[in-house]
Design goal:
The chain is mainly alpha-helical. It has one domain. The protein has four helices and two strands. Strands 1-2 form a two-stranded antiparallel sheet. Helix 2 packs antiparallel against helix 3. It is globular, with a radius of gyration of 17 Å.
Amino acid sequence: MLWSSYVFVHEFGHHFAGLADEYFTSESAYLPAADRVEPWEPNVTALKDPVALKWKALVTPGTPIPTPWRKEEFETFSRAIQVERKKIRAENRPESEMDALFTRERKEVSRMLSTDQYSGKVGAFEGAMYESRGYFRPEIDCIMFTRDEVPFCRVCQAAISRIIDLYTRGPAK
């Protein structure tokens, strides 16, 4: 499978609408920041004030903030995938094996996230900006979070729409 379409659209989100990475289990994960500041990106938050959540207008009624999800199950699976990924690279195995691993990962992650209680709901799901704790994303899944075959979440879609409006109509008055 070619991942170039996913990469193009994901990177487009960064460069066109200033969207942050919502994932946190990659090799580029960081140690927690000593002083957590509210990020400027529209699709992540430090959730310092849940009442003033930047995407509160899009939160699905009845969804708790922060929003619970099967995070431990996701993290356990992601760590196992990373072990396999490192082994494939260390043994210099064919790229087709990495592609098969990514395809298997995508299927399992898609199943896991799509069956979660708050799947398809806007809330505040912990784990974003390369950190497992302390940063939150708006939906359980989004193209800014996984390689699933999911579109931008509603918050990311709204951010992209704002930029399009800015370029086509000028700033809001």
